[in-house]
Amino acid sequence: MGLRNILFIISCIIVGFCLSLYFQTDTTVQTVNWDQYKNLQDAETRTHSLVEYNKKIAPYRLQDLIQETYEKNRLAGEKTRVMEIEAGDGRILMELKKQFPQVEFYALNREKTRTFYRRESFILTALKFEIFNKQEVEEIDLPYVVFQDLDFGARIPYDENKFDLIFSEDTITHIKYKFELFNEIMRVLRPGGVSFHTDITGLNIYSKGLVLELRDAMAEIRRRGIDVKTLENREAIRFKKSKRQQPFPVTPHQPIPENLQNLSQELRRPEMGYNINY
Known about the structure:
By secondary structure, this protein is an alpha/beta fold. The protein is built from 9 helices and 11 strands. It has helices spanning 3-25, 50-56, 62-76, 91-99, 121-128, 134-137, 178-188, 214-222, 265-268; strands at 81-85, 104-109, 144-147, 163-168, 189-197, 203-207, 210-212, 227-230, 237-240, 250-252, 272-276. The strands form 2 sheets. A 7-stranded mixed sheet has the order 3-2-1-4-5-9-8. It has a 4-stranded mixed sheet with strand order 7-6-11-10. The longest helix is centred in the first third of the chain and has 23 residues, at 3-25. The chain is globular and about 70 Å long.
């Protein structure tokens, strides 16, 4: 056998190996273990529904906001992108995907779990809660998912001006450097994009030495040029990105540690105080 034939065979083997890796990462619905979704024992503690979330952000509803944005973007020939931070098992995103199949949805979770650890995990959620059937789920583009801790000033792994809507539920209370995350959300929001966050606790905001209620603190920040407000639910806020992007005018009581390795439990506690800048 000539050298040329040997090289050709080796090349075919390499190409075949690369293709096998590619198709492993582009897993289709046929590769999912259908029996797994029937026994998502730990999923109930990580799930929340669209109806439940809308109650927390009243008078707004996510589907109304997406519908308005989608129509505007469609006329402009632009895509609509929505991201949930700490999406849990992705139930809300799949409920929204059912209503808006043309919208791109994204999840950003802190860590993988036994039942939610890759993009195809959305399929199991859709089946468990009967959002889609097997045939329907084969025909949709699943939401994207990234696993990353967003605390301590971590960068959201997307370019600026990408998303139209970003939301979270019972997430901010577990983040120590809350406003640093808000600034990152502002960065990746498109001008005019909005962000909703519920269940905000453990956040003390001071103005000239006095601690403010969350509603009063947001009003003080709004007077400094940030379009932010609390909602009917006093533990929920909404903010909007203006054309002139600017950071939230606050300073944390503790600067972000330079070395994040082996932090003590005390330094990881999510409670944090901020001073409003004057």
